[in-house]
């Protein structure tokens, strides 16, 4: 069985490359700019790459992240599967702070982000199918890992991505609820879109850090988000590592259709 290559994209609160043994820092030069990844070996000696979404030391706000450079770098590294993390606000009472959620749908409310690799003169016109936005194989691995670790993880939710860096207004949150959104965040798009264009399987495990604006008692703050992520990161890391081992058992075999666009 051919070994697979897995990447973890760490969002807010997930900054350390503690998903592999002896990780080494590498700079990857891409047509869209340079990016930094850590390469190592994970469970079962699987090649594992860690990419901090906000850059080292969390220097990049959501709207300034170079999503195309990040995904291009993973494609160049021959990564086949990506598990991403995301700190999110909840729009639903059944998803309180501290919840883990394996996302299955998204709504794009971003405005100014390059969201395709096919935008240069002479590029083909490409319309990518998103009937199933997140890889079913990765979703199954994450849910299986959560069950085996005794971690409560919600199966399925709709993630609405805003432009940021500001938080949303209560009026916007009421609209988002009416649209059927369950979670709100600032980084999920265009990451998953670019991964699909690159033919990379992509899964997102979200951690609820707060109720969205107007649904809680206190004003929103990044300190609140960081504090809860610090509390939940050890369990999140264990869940992801176990999911990586399950994906490793599959090797290069993929039953999904994610690679069709790449």
Protein architecture, described:
The protein has helices spanning 67-76, 136-149, 170-178, 191-197, 222-250, and strands spanning 6-10, 21-30, 33-41, 47-52, 81-90, 100-102, 105-109, 153-155, 158-162, 183-185, 201-211. By secondary structure, the chain is of the alpha/beta class. The protein has a single domain, classed as Nucleoside phosphorylase domain (Rossmann fold, 3-Layer(aba) Sandwich), CATH 3.40.50. Strands 1, 2, 3, 4, 5, 6, 7, 8, 9, 10 and 11 form an 11-stranded mixed β-sheet that branches. The longest helix is centred in the C-terminal third of the chain and has 29 residues, at 222-250. It is globular, with a radius of gyration of 17 Å. The model has no long low-confidence stretch (mean pLDDT 91).
Compact summary:
This protein has 262 residues and is α/β, with parallel strands linked by helices. The chain contains 5 helices and 11 strands. It has one domain: Nucleoside phosphorylase domain (Rossmann fold), CATH 3.40.50.
List keywords for this structure.
26% helix; single chain; 27% strand; eleven-stranded mixed β-sheet; Rossmann fold; 262 residues
How many angstroms separate the termini? Answer: 22 Å
Rg from Cα: 17 Å
Low-confidence stretches: none
- CATH class equals Alpha Beta
- What name does the CATH topology carry? Rossmann fold
Sheet having the most strands: 11 strands, mixed
The CATH architecture category equals 3-Layer(aba) Sandwich
How many extended strands?
11
Strand-helix topology:
Elements: E1 6-10, E2 21-30, E3 33-41, E4 47-52, H1 67-76, E5 81-90, E6 100-102, E7 105-109, H2 136-149, E8 153-155, E9 158-162, H3 170-178, E10 183-185, H4 191-197, E11 201-211, H5 222-250
Parallel strand pairs: 1-4, 1-5, 5-11, 6-8, 7-9, 9-10
Antiparallel strand pairs: 2-3, 3-4, 5-10, 6-11
Helix pairs in contact: 2-5
